[in-house]
Amino acid sequence: MTIIAIDGPAASGKGTLARRLARQFGFAHLDTGKLYRAVGLAVLRFGGDPEDEDAAADAARALDPADLDDPALAGDEAAQAASQVAALPAVREALLQFQRSFAAHPPDGAAGAVLDGRDIGAVICPDAPVKLYVTADVEVRAQRRHKELLNRGAPSIYARVLEALQERDARDAAREAAPMRPADDAHVLDTSAMDPDEAFRAALDLVEPALAAASEEG
Ligand code: C5P
């Protein structure tokens, strides 16, 4: 199975890029952040504490793929709770198999899969033939997220968006369990000065040769 692994910090544009790459190659796409968001939200809805490892691991084991369609997953409450449950090794362990199965058997008979998250290249799919680490300056990411919220008609204050991103990045990078970092063999793609089309073209320039080389080898 051909896997494209995409990692990077919050609001780096990795999700958009992953979707476009999946469409380009006819691959399935899994936004693995949604798994952690769904677990975080489930714990909150049961009135639990997202730092309670037993409660969060139970929620991770009970996760139903239908939970991944909940629009509330996109909100900031889910994002912060996701980053709390994601630091717990039992939660990561419980979600590992789902992600590996998706990569090994993508739905609808797709010939490959694009997974995006924080630890895809380093932990989930270490043998992926191409790994991107998509990043951008935190102020640029905060501006993008702020504009996206305003365009959706959601209330947003730039300083709060920036603070929330910084808090989440710091927690994701500092945790002991699968901290956010580029895999040793990842291509780092800094999109600070790129629009989405430029980022897509830059990603294609990295992905196409790697996939061609992998199919020659395979
Ligand atoms: O990518 P997204 O912002 O939806 O991720 C939400 C949170 O889930 C992240 O802040 C991170 O803590 C966690 N996450 C993770 N590993 C992944 C994907 C997401 O730890 N592969």
Small molecules in complex: cytidine-5'-monophosphate
Number of helices: 9
CATH class identity: Alpha Beta
What is the CATH architecture term? 3-Layer(aba) Sandwich
Strand order across the largest sheet? 2-3-1-4-5
3D shape: globular
What's the domain count? 1
Tell me the β content: 5-15%
Quick one: biggest sheet? 5 strands, parallel
Strand segment count: 5
* Proportion of helical residues: 40-55%
- What average pLDDT do the residues reach? 96
- Write out the CATH superfamily name: P-loop containing nucleotide triphosphate hydrolases
Low-confidence runs of at least 5 consecutive residues? none
Q: How would you classify the helix and strand content by structural class?
A: alpha/beta
Task: Give a structural overview.
This protein has 218 residues and is of the alpha/beta class. It has one domain (2-217): Rossmann fold (3-Layer(aba) Sandwich), CATH 3.40.50. It contains nine helices and five strands. The protein has helices at 14-25, 33-45, 53-61, 76-85, 89-104, 120-124, 138-151, 158-174, 196-217; strands at 2-7, 28-31, 112-117, 130-135, 187-190. The model has no long low-confidence stretch (mean pLDDT 96). Cytidine-5'-monophosphate binds next to helix 2, helix 4 and helix 8.
Features of the shown structure:
single chain, 218 residues, alpha/beta, Rossmann fold, five-stranded parallel beta sheet, 9 helices, 54% helix, globular, binds cytidine-5'-monophosphate
Structure summary:
The chain is of the alpha/beta class and 218 residues long.
